[in-house]
Design a protein that fits this description.
heterotrimer, A alpha/beta (about 650), B mainly alpha (about 325), C alpha/beta (about 260), A: five-stranded parallel sheet, five-stranded mixed sheet, C: alpha/beta, six-stranded mixed sheet, about 40% helix
Amino acid sequence: MAVDIRTFDTFPKLLAHHAQVRGALPAIREKDLGVWQTWTWGRLNDEVRALACGLAAHGLKRGAHLAIVGDNRPRLYAAMCAAQCLGAVPVPLYQDAVATEMAFPIQNADIGFAMAEDQEQVDKLLEVLPTCPSLKRIYFDDPRGLRHYAQPELSSYEQLQEVGREFDAKNPGFFDAEVARGLGADTAAMFFTSGTTGNPKGVVLTHTALVDRAHAAALMEGLGDSDVVLAYLPPAWIGQNIFSYAQPFVTGYCICCPESAETVMADMREIGPTYYFAPPRVLEALLTTVSIRMEDAGSLKRKMYGYFMDVARRVGAKILDGEQVAAGDRLLYRLGDVFVYGPLRNVLGMSRVRVAYTAGEAIGPDLFVFYRSIGINLKQLYGSTETSVFVCIQPNGQVKPDTVGPAVPGVELKFTPQRELLIRSPGLFKEYYKNPQATADAKDAEGWFHTGDAGYFDPDGHLKIIDRVKDVGALTDGTLFAPKYIENKLKFFPYIREAVAFGHAKDKVCVFINFDMEAVGNWAERHNLPYTGYVDLASRDEVCDLVASCIEKVNLDLSQDPELANSQIHRFLILHKELDADDGELTRTRKVRRGYIGERYLPLVEALYAGRDSVHIEVQVRYEDGRTGNVSADLKIRDVKTFPAAAAKRAA
Amino acid sequence: MRKHIGLIVLGLFLLAGLAAPLVTGASQPGFYIEVLLGGLMAGVLYSLVALGFALIFKASGVFNFAQGAMVLFAALAVARLAERMPLWIAILISIVIMIALAWVIERLVLRPLVNQEGVALLMATLGVSYFLDGFGQTVWGSDIYKIELGIPKEPVMILDQVFQGGILVNKEDFVAAIAAAALVGTLALFFQKTATGRALRAVADDHQAAQSIGIPLNRIWVIVWSVAGIVALVAGVIWGSKLGVQFSLSQVALKALPVVILGGFTSVAGAIVGGLIIGVGEKMAEVFLGPVLVKAFDLAGGGIENWFAYVLALLFLLVRPQGLFGEKHIDRV
Amino acid sequence: MSGGRKIGEVILAVENVSLAFGGVKALSGVSFDVREHEVRAIIGPNGAGKSSMLNVINGVYHPQQGTIRLRGREFHDMDPHEVALAGIARTFQNLALFKGMSVLDNIMTGRNLRMRTNLLLQALRIGPAAREEMVHREAVERIIDFLEIQAWRKTPVGRLPYGLQKRVDLGRALAMEPSVLLLDEPMAGMNVEEKQDMCRFILDVNDHFGTTIVLIEHDMSVVMDISDRVVVLDYGKKIGDGTPAEVRGNQAVIDAYLGVSH
């Protein structure tokens, strides 16, 4: 793999390099008309050349922006590279954004050119055209349905290439000279991140940043040109772009574009990727499909699955980490591999996966361990758009469910007194586009990027992210209080749907619980517990015991962590109603609005801390049809067992 | 699981019966395997006849009573033609004859009776059956004829190192089994991979829809009956070379009936598996169950082969009325 | 939408067709024509004779009186197979797909008509037969792509939800590359979203392949949106014929059909 990234410091130069040394190896595959169609590196190079010349002929200038709007398609990736060849900047936009959401980035970045996937995306661009005077040309990949479009801005990918080939013939040295002019310090791409508030910000990344990070991670995992990746997440997301553009351009591996969103699972089985990324929600959904299939299977199969999954849970992850395991268990695991894990990996399309990553949000330990226990080398990583992704990666054999691993070579990490994580890395972004204020806020004079994330190193030097800095507080004894961290730990239990933790400026931690109606309802049926509804269940001692047992496990877990041992949960109550976005208790993306809930249910919070056994509540609720009504209930308050802090680890 | 309980119990019961002679030490392993192989060989032939039934039933909904007569007719044709010419030419000509026969049957019997009650068609095939029996003898004669495949009939001893006394097998039987397997494989490929095969499956799935998209039913019927004729020919040649070509050959149809009941009327897989089960079952019953019955009830003990297949089919019918493979919608014809 | 589509000459002419079952008159003296590349709807209340009309064109029923001409050539007692050969394909209101066969195989059966090589070559899969199979497979893959059913290529049709089965039915008819496509209540039993999808596919087919489309449909709103011209039947008689706007304004139609709330 050893590509010299100092010589080949831009993506176009890397492409030229691959076209030369592995011109006949596959670069991009796409399933079309039921067959995997392959572009070799040589072919990709030819496509890019024709496109770049066409774009130059149409007036795309160095530093100008080209929007890329669509799913993972070979031609869109080719367009990305074509822009970079001319020193222009590709700006991938989310293909599922509605038209109005597309207007801002186009206006903000003065985008003049756009490469769209199909009619759907063209329609959206045409819709915003009146508000985006900068947009002059729109190219499209798939002509279906566009035959009768007469807009002067439109032309097809083929037409663009034709112009390009003509231009190339007239100016033979042009393309190579343009590529040679490119420098690592030039802007390679711009990604818009959707801030929770305000307009999205355009994150400007240089070739050097992206190439360096892609290279560092590839070196760490030993990626080479025989690796295969399935590109199935939005290309406008930095993660997908790293895995399906930056890293293949550094290592020469092949990416595969699925036929459609519905065929991803089947396509994955067909190509058998060796390198895989999935956010926790995707892993969760996959596990759910497997579980549903097992429920439908015959009883023999179900029993076998249950038995061997127990074996896997016990020893699978240890075997993957190369730890000592009893010979009998090892044999059982082998047997399970033949009958259960192997077929399961095959169904998931992960038979050949060597390295799999997950990131983006906290992953439940059960979910994480499930994949590792069946022999899939799933690891966590930490990074963001601003850092060209790779900041921390769990190295093989040192994988823990609750950390994201040590820093990737080249990255420096440190913490502010408020425990905010600061990063300095060759992969850091150049700036937020046309937003010097935001840039200055995020990146200080010494080049440290302020992540806004709070965390610390565990005794092994692995980074542990616990919460956003602004949400982290402290108990009265000074102990760190990370409400979201605690709430997430609770929510990993299927019985618990929502949790709200209180503790900032208090002497102990207490929580509100919303249990999961479906899971607890099933549980109640299995235990012959008749009930009428949520409120009824909430008042049952059995349900309180169930919730208490979950909280105890979280406490045990917290007690192992020297930093958080004192923030174990002392008391809890089960809320009388489910938290609802309509009542303003959750955001639309289902995030708990802790402050509002604390005010709204102040009497409950006070009761928790006053040490009472129960509390009466009367609140107004808004029904779905808009009417309002009153609900009143007596809520039980329970104490939970806490554990002494694990002394052994404290020393570290 | 629960709905299969009857089938599972029956299966375990049969397996137990199958294992009994070995477990109780009533038989030497070598001899036991000989009997088993003999049963499988017979089963292959039952399967072939049942296959003809299943094909026609699935594609046209006709229960073809004449399948046995077709076996006899084809075997007679091959035997008599082979007296005058090399065997392979005789077989080729016989194939052409069977295709012509299929065409005639479609023209004269099926087409006029289209959309009639199933019983009318059944009676018609009964008529075809008698016609073929008689007509065959008129054309080809009514003696017992021989088909010489040119394969040595002497049994060979194998595995005499492993078992005391070794195992006696008939080389001809092996060739026959391989030929039958090749035929079944070819048919499966034909149905799965060719346009005509696809059309056949389409017709089997839904006649009317097939017709409305331009699949000509009449042509499909000719093809299906031709295929059934060729299958009958293979069965006839194999059987004829073993036992000689004679009138009793048409009675094998009666053996195929329990096979299709057991396997499910519309299933090729059912015909094959059913044939093997019946073949093995009745051989085992004859060799091992017969003496037991003689001892226990002081019976004469003969003729088990004649009724055992029906009892087996009846048992399956009780626990699974649709036949072993009848319930699922089978993708193949 | 239909900017580039040119409506051409009369391709299908129904002249004075009458059909009776025993004493019951299903159609009496119905005449209308269908022009090349247009979307032509036949509407009417239940029992108006819409399905009978389609079945007459399709060759399932032979009318006692009247003629049907395709490009000027008169049909004479053609059976459905011959009608299909002449270039008229149809879909079914009560799906008539091959439930046990895969989506791919179902659509491939639509190509059977166009297969030319003989049985022996097919059986051996050699020479022209192998090449032909490839060509047809590609045509079918284009249809699968067009109808966005890639994910279900190998799935037995019987296991698909209803809306998708309807799409497969359309795909099988398209595979015949018909010049006229008869759609029998393509939107029946669908929810709003499925109806919208189906409308889009019908218009796309019309636009993309230039296929002339005759559809019968119960759902008025759908018909009015996508048709160029509409025939209205009531009790087996034609009571209206014209553009959707004209039909809406026709008093006889309003009385017979629009006036009745559905």
